[in-house]
Amino acid sequence: MSEITTTQKRPSIIVENVRKTFQIRHTHSMKEAFISRLKRKQVGSTPYNALDGVAFTVGEGESVALLGFNGSGKSTLLKLVSGVLEPDAGRVLTRGRVAGLIEVGAGFHPDLSGRENVYLNAAILGMNKAEIDERFDRIVEFSEIGEFIDQEVKHYSSGMFLRLAFSVAIHVELDVLLVDEILSVGDAPFRKKCTEKIHELAQAGKTMLIVSHNMAMVQELCERGIVINKGKKIFDGPIAEAVDAMNAK
Amino acid sequence: MTSVDLTGFQTPGRGRGILDVFNHGYLLRLLIRKGTATRYRNSVLGWTWSYVKPAAQFLIYYFVMGVVLQFHRDVENFAIYLFAGVVAINLFNEAFGNATSSIVDNRALVRKIYLPRELFPISTIIIALIHFLPQVAILLLACILVGWAPTFLSLAAFAIGLVIVLMMSLGLGLLFGALNVRYRDAQNFVEIIRMLSTWASPVLYTIAMVEQALKGWAFTVYMLNPLTTAVELFHYAFWLPTTSGAAETLSPGIVGNIFVSLGICAVLVVIGQIVFRRFERSFAQDL
User: Fold this and answer.
1) Could you tell me which residue ranges the ABC transmembrane type-2 domain spans (chain B) (predicted)?
2) pTM, rounded to two decimals
């Protein structure tokens, strides 16, 4: 089934034989690096393949779940698609505006007010002033921050902080959404709201790549699943079978 | 599958370097506003510190060089001569130092979200420029009190001097900012350069004294420092018009120096950008 959907529609994400190798570096100063070179010692130590020969495409409007245990390379893969990391071999291509619900709130500054942080972070996520002005009220409404929007963010509770950060990220103008295990934010009602919002985006034809350990949620949101184990793709197909393959491990 | 039409596809994380900063004008403005707004948070004196620090520095230099070593006898309006050089070097030190630490300081963002990373050094250099303006205002006030009036040449000298300082900060800032991610001792190297900058350019003494002390190639090497040209241009802009014609105190071939300095700065920016691009690929994993 998945084969049919990928070939029918134009892909939004192409991942081609990607390898990502991390060097566990021993030298962290120029002096150490210089002396290691003089002694002809290896400057980096054993290379570690976080991803090896992973290939898949995600069609436009498709929702795909990335499944795997901790350390299997899922988050590394999302970082490659978002552009934070670059592959050591193979290539990653994307089409349209890519935005990530990855560690929301990374750009928040505690000394700025909620309002200033909304503008700053929306701009970091690639929006211009007109787009933010237009969405500002919806962002605040979704976050349920209300009158606290003009308070400094350092006075927020952790729940308020996460709600505002998530709200900014979810309202970004996008074609491709990358989601990394952040649907655990806030209390149950807010989580429900977030899941609904992601559903809404999927319905609107946005492409999604979702990393989660929550099998129930993933089965609800995605039609296709890719299972990664120790940096290699071991399954790619309908979500129910992917979850079975995952559980069989 | 293999014959997918690749038009419209982009490689994530591959920008166009400094040029990309121009497409992110709004974000650059917000980053600058964030930097200026949060700089003196939780401090009582706030922006006054932008005046207090250079004032203290100036008083010490004036006491040692002007009063103890009696420079104010040989150099007319020595206070203005000194201050014009001090503000130029302060701008360089601040812009260069901030640019070097900008990537490491923004590690939370660099590790998680892709955006043109050149935005960070460039925004901190512009913030340094904003903090430099009050110092120029004080310098101008002092100059006007002793009879300075703007001329086309003095304003042009000031503008070119500014361009040289900013280009040099950008080139070195990109270079050391990128190196600093992998090797944190780049920071210490930068401290040495910042310390040298005050003494290796004619801020506390005059170029005429250097010419007497250094002969031949040594003087040529000294003159190759773009900051020397920038400081001399600031002297030309602010100090020279307040004197009764003391042009011989300044650099002999300033016009030639301008072209050499601009050339060196352009090379520094290119090298800085190339190294930055090379190291940028591993920023997220090295931080």
Assistant:
1) 45-279
2) 0.87
